[in-house]
Write a structure and sequence with these properties.
Strands 1-2-3-4 form a 4-stranded mixed beta sheet. It is of the alpha/beta class and 250 residues long. Helix content is 57%, strand content 7%. Keywords: Membrane, Transmembrane, Transmembrane helix.
Length: 250
């Protein structure tokens, strides 16, 4: 009877053996490749849409940041798997982990600085191009850029002609041969509103130039000297919206 009573508390104080923590480099590597491989293409597409090109430095920043994060986390999990008693203090970085983190942050911010310099140089080039193009467009002329990097042109100066149009196209091509021009509009502005909307210097010579801009979506050449035959050729532009097509047919 005494033995049965003594055995009861012994069962209550018996140690509980927890399941061991395991670590797999292969599993962590697969997770890293899966996450990075899923997010990197999305980052590339966003950069392409916003800047009209592949942002290699931005992609390098992302991949490097993901690599450092997974490396530090994997090392922490590996150490815990080897020494389960470290679980309580696993949030603290070792000296080696701290060095990795500092080196990673240094390189990461270096990439950010390099990316900023590239972006600033790009903005300076666009500003210089805009200044030069607007000089050729004349009064009320506008050179714009949409979020996807495509270019818009607004022409109001009544003295604008084929030669100046060719110079505008040359400036844009010299800056970026594959630049996308999505809009060319002949219209009026504050300085030209009282002048009859006529551009006698813009003739069928400019039709071939416009046909080279296959990304044109919005086009208005009303008031120009482009012939009916030239307008029919412009209707072959594949991206033109319906309003632009209707304008060319009248």
């Amino acid at each position: 009877m005494r033995n049965s009573v003594d055995s009861a508390p012994a069962s209550k104080t018996a140690p509980v053996v927890e399941e061991g923590i395991t670590f797999s480099w292969r599993r962590n590597l697969f997770l890293y490749i899966a996450v990075t491989g899923a997010l990197a293409p999305a980052l590339v597409l966003v950069g392409w849409y916003r800047h009209g090109g592949l942002r290699l430095l931005t992609l390098a920043e992302f991949v490097f940041a993901m690599t450092v994060a997974f490396a530090i986390d994997s090392r922490r999990r590996w150490r815990i798997a080897r020494r389960p008693e470290m679980t309580a203090g696993s949030a603290r970085l070792s000296l080696g982990g701290l060095l990795i983190l500092i080196s990673g942050l240094t390189l990461f911010f270096g990439l950010i600085a390099a990316e900023y310099q590239v972006y600033q140089r790009f903005r300076d080039e666009v500003h210089q191009l805009q200044t030069n193009v607007v000089k050729l467009l004349g009064p009320d002329g506008e050179f714009g850029s949409l979020t996807d990097g495509s270019i818009t042109l607004l022409i109001c100066d009544r003295s604008f002609d084929d030669d100046r149009f060719a110079k505008v196209a040359r400036l844009i091509s010299d800056w970026k041969p594959d630049a996308e021009i999505c809009q060319v509009i002949f219209s009026s502005g504050p300085a030209t509103n009282d002048t009859p909307p006529a551009w006698s210097g813009v003739t069928d010579r400019s039709v071939e130039l416009l046909l080279g801009w296959r990304e044109l979506k919005w086009l208005s050449v009303d008031g120009s000297a482009i012939s009916a035959e030239g307008r029919q050729k412009l209707l072959t532009l594949p991206q033109l919206d319906e309003i632009s097509r209707q304008g060319l047919m009248h």
